[in-house]
Design goal:
Bound molecules: xanthosine-5'-monophosphate
Radius of gyration: 26 Å
CATH superfamily of the largest domain: HUPs
Number of strands: 20
Mean pLDDT: 93
Largest sheet: 9 strands, mixed
CATH topology of the largest domain: Rossmann fold
């Protein structure tokens, strides 16, 4: 399959470049700029994209374009720092700018060229240095008020540079530009489609697994479900899925898991209802970290027990996706990866004696969803919101009793139903749920004074879950959620809306 190699010079937008190229149905991979030549060339790229980055080309130690990129004779597109590094490497001149140019700008396209549409399109700028003199053979393709060379190209050598960021949505023509580069200039064939992804994953899985047995932990989450469904498509009954119902799942979720795997996919499924064990272990526990630890430990013990029952398996399926892989390999993003480790509570420890099968390792979340749909999984599952491993326990502040979790589950169901009815579940709002607070307040219902608990509604919009803003939900929707919760959920007489962003708050309350 044709592919593009993206060299990452440290820009916060590097993953976006990869997503846009994939959206053009062309496979691409993101490599650190210092990756070994063999590693990059192993994907047989039809061209290179050099990302932006925080450095300045004349700084000591500034990252340079590796020689094999230019020696290959393949098309190159340098974006922002990538353009400056290209200019520097080919004998042009980069000037440190006195001021950064940041934000929307208008460019004027100067000559007819295969990369940029004619006219005066709006673009997104974010750079310090700028090109003063393009390298020999290059001609300026566009200018803006602050960048006399906002785009440049050597059409014969098929090398281009953009001072602005085509990968961000704020550059409306960006998608068109990247598409033109990969399809027209590099001549890559648009063969990366859900059907081809599935086909390739299946042959890879078969090759890896042979005739050995495989197990998969399934939780109802998108990644674990799609990963298991792919492996099942590849090796059928060699796969056993294990589902541990902790009693801490969302409304109807355990049934959905069983229906999907047993009825829809006809996969071998071991489903254990372990809710009693979990509630017993959580009795009297109020401290958030203690809850996570107890749930994590119990989960692993039960999973191991069931895995033994499933017979001798050599492989374990994991739903690792591409952003996890990229984040843990980029040195400057390690910190971010570390902050997230607590989220693996409820997952499986690394010392489990299995070889891993990771069929989603090269896929972005939106691709995982497309593959899920192409495998025939229901939309309601494919579009499920993220849900923490320890489940409702970390949204049930205070003691986690069966009664309180049921109360929370009903409130959460109402939040989801009302957002779905208002068409708000898939758009801006990335995650929305209810939290049960151990706070009782006075209310009045009919002629009766009540003294009952409080539900907090949390809804956030976010791209990456590392930062988030609270959703400006319409008052009408909030009003319906509130009145339904106090009317339909026993033991709750007050509903509040969480209006804190992350940071300083986290998305979850525990
Ligand atoms: P926070 O609360 O840290 O959450 O802002 C960020 C995202 O991670 C999810 N989350 C978890 N996911 N296991 C998971 O698999 C966990 O223990 C866990 N805790 C939080 C959270 O729902 C949000 O999407």
């Amino acid at each position: 399959m044709d592919s593009i190699a993206i060299l990452d010079f440290g820009s916060q937008y590097s993953q976006l470049i990869a997503r846009r190229v994939r959206e053009a149905n062309v496979y691409c991979e993101l490599f650190p700029h210092h990756a070994a030549r063999q590693q990059v060339m192993a994907i047989h790229p039809k061209g290179f994209i050099l990302s932006g980055g925080p450095a300045s080309v004349y700084e000591p130690g500034a990252p340079q374009i590796p020689p094999y990129v230019l020696e290959s004779g393949l098309p190159v597109l340098g974006i922002c720092y990538g353009m400056q590094a290209l200019t520097h490497a080919l004998g042009g001149r980069v000037a440190p700018s006195v001021e950064r140019e940041y934000g929307a700008a208008e460019i004027e396209v100067l000559v007819d060229n295969p990369l940029l549409p004619p006219g005066r399109p709006r673009v997104w700028m974010s750079h310090g240095d700028r090109i003063e003199q393009p390298p020999p053979g290059f001609q300026p393709l566009a200018r803006s008020e602050n960048s006399p060379i906002a785009a440049m190209g050597d059409q014969r050598a098929r090398r281009y540079g953009l001072q602005f960021h085509p990968e961000v949505r704020h550059t409306p023509i960006g998608e068109e530009i990247l598409r033109a580069f990969v399809l027209e200039i590099c001549g890559a064939r648009p063969e990366w489609t859900p059907a081809s992804i599935i086909e390739e994953a299946i042959s890879r899985i078969r090759e890896q697994v042979g005739s050995e047995r495989v197990i998969a932990g399934v939780s109802g989450g998108v990644d674990s479900t799609v990963a298991a469904a792919l492996v099942h498509r590849a090796v059928g009954d060699q796969l056993t899925c294990i589902f541990v119902d902790t009693g801490l799942m969302r409304y109807h979720e355990p049934q959905m898991v069983v229906e999907t795997f047993e009825r829809l996919l006809q996969a071998r499924l071991i489903a254990v209802n372990a809710s009693e064990t979990f509630f017993e272990a959580l009795q009297g526990v109020r401290e958030p970290e203690a809850k996570r630890r107890i749930i994590g430990e119990k989960f692993i013990r039960i999973f191991e027990e069931q895995a033994r029952r499933a017979g001798e398996a050599r492989f374990l399926v994991q739903g690792t996706i591409y952003p996890d892989v990229v984040e843990s390999s980029a040195p400057d993003r390690r910190v971010a990866a570390r902050i997230k480790t607590h989220h693996n509570v409820g997952g499986l420890p690394e010392d489990l004696q299995f070889d891993l099968v990771e069929p989603l390792r090269y896929l972005f979340k939106d691709e995982v969803r497309k593959v899920g749909l192409a495998l025939g999984l229901p939309e309601s599952l494919v579009w499920r919101q993220p849900f923490p491993g320890p489940g409702l326990a970390v949204r049930c502040l205070g003691e986690v009793s069966l009664e309180r979790v049921q109360r929370l589950r009903m409130a959460d169901k109402i939040v989801t139903e009302e957002l779905a009815a208002a068409g708000l579940l898939r758009g801006e709002t990335a995650q929305a749920f209810a939290v049960l607070l151990p706070v009782r307040s006075v209310g009045v219902m009919g002629d009766q004074r009540t003294y009952a608990e409080t539900v907090a509604v949390r809804a956030v919009s976010t791209e990456d879950f590392m930062t988030a803003d609270w959703s400006r939900l319409p008052y009408g929707v909030l009003a319906r959620i509130s009145s339904r919760i106090v009317n339909e959920v026993e033991g709750v007489n007050r509903v509040v809306y969480d209006i804190t962003s992350k940071p300083p708050a986290t998305i979850e309350w525990e």
